[in-house]
């Protein structure tokens, strides 16, 4: 580091700040230090730095599964944000062993992360439901993405999407097109985001004085959307459907096409997430855009601030925005 400082014409403390991705370095100086590091072939020794500072510059990510598009996009967002802050990322998936009754898998995940010396961890989506029954290490800094405000131990910070508001906007959009009611393809039980989207859907129907049909529950996959779509397509009274994510909406679109029901001429469909392919569905999907980049970046920022000693902030909510495309139209009635 002394060699880098001499070549760049800065202090050793400035080099340390650049190495640790501190924002307290102006861009011109940072570029000069990084150029000197590259010229000299200097690379920080993570293990040595951990011994000196007591920090590993590594954070953990706990997720139920990476099979869903939403969780995969969140992983990418968290990984990018962690790298920008100079942190490595360790991922633990709970897979099929997830038990919402005991919380045991997430407890084991925390132990794995502690064994690897992480400075803190982010818990994603469905995995957050396990916090209620888990033995959370008191010395492990946590940020949870999508969890009830009162649903976990003291000490974790919360960052979440405005799921209910987004679902409410989607449902109100369909009602505003003249549909008498809106059917709902819901996400799995135990998922905070699924419950919030269900709540927003119900609220919009109540606002309009519309009857809420019994929701049909899927598992976030296009396969489950197709299965449920077959049931909805067989009911001629169904003219509008809000699916709790875009993947289930995709399966729903296929089921409607298989049954010869046009979208949006016969049935209007809205999804949630605005995955990268949503605009290329047939027809292009009206959906609620979830800002995964902002969500992941904020989760990492809050965690790193906590690791560095900042007080736990109040829960934060990232807005969700309705994106209207060609899968919705006036009621055929």
Structural class: alpha/beta
Q: Overall 3D geometry?
A: elongated
Strand content: 15-25%
Count the E strands. Answer: 12
Describe the largest sheet.
6 strands, parallel
Give the % helix.
40-55%
How many DSSP helices?
A: 11
Parts with pLDDT < 50 across at least 5 consecutive residues: 96-103
Radius of gyration: 23 Å
In spatial order, strands of the major sheet run: 2-1-3-4-5-11
**How many angstroms separate the termini?**
73 Å
Summed over residues and divided by their number, the pLDDT gives a mean of 89
* Strand and helix order: HHHHEHEHEEEHEHEHEHEEHEE
Describe, in plain words, how this protein is organized in 3D.
The protein is α/β, with parallel strands linked by helices. Helix content is 41%, strand content 17%. It has helices at 2-8, 12-19, 27-40, 46-53, 69-84, 104-115, 163-176, 192-208, 222-233, 246-258, 292-307, and strands spanning 58-63, 88-93, 120-124, 141-145, 156-161, 183-186, 216-217, 240-243, 268-273, 286-290, 316-318, 320-323. The strands form two sheets. Strands 2-1-3-4-5-11 form a six-stranded parallel sheet, sandwiched between helices. α8 links the parallel β6 and β7.
């Amino acid at each position: 580091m002394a060699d880098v400082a001499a070549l760049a014409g800065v202090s050793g403390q400035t080099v340390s700040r650049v190495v640790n991705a501190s924002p307290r370095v102006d861009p011109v100086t940072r570029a000069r230090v990084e150029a000197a590091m590259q010229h000299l072939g200097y690379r920080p020794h993570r293990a040595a730095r951990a011994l000196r500072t007591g920090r590993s510059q590594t954070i953990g990510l706990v997720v139920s599964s990476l099979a869903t598009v939403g969780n995969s996009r969140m992983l990418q967002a968290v990984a990018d944000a962690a790298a920008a802050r100079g942190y490595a990322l360790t991922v633990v998936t709970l897979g099929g062993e997830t038990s919402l009754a005991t919380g045991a898998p997430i407890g084991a995940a925390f132990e794995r992360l502690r064994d690897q010396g992480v400075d803190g961890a982010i818990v994603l989506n469905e995995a957050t439901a396990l916090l209620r029954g888990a033995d959370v290490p008191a010395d492990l800094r946590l940020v949870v993405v999508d969890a009830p405000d009162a649903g976990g131990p003291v000490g974790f910070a919360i960052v979440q999407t405005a799921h209910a508001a987004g679902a409410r906007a989607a449902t109100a959009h369909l009602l505003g097109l003249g549909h008498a009611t809106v059917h709902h393809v819901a996400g799995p039980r135990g998922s905070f985001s699924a419950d919030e989207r269900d709540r927003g859907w119900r609220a919009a129907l109540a606002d309009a004085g519309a009857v809420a049909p019994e929701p049909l529950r899927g598992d976030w996959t296009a396969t489950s959307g197709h299965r449920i779509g077959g049931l909805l397509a067989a009911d001629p009274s169904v003219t509008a459907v809000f699916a709790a994510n875009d993947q289930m909406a995709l399966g729903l679109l296929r089921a409607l096409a298989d049954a010869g029901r046009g979208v949006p001429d016969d049935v209007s469909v809205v999804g949630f997430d605005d995955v990268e392919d949503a605009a290329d569905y047939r027809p292009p999907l009206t959906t609620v855009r979830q800002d995964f980049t902002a969500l992941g970046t904020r989760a990492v920022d809050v965690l790193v601030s906590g690791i560095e000693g900042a007080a736990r902030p109040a829960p934060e909510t990232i807005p969700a925005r309705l994106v209207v495309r060609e899968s919705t139209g006036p009621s055929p009635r």
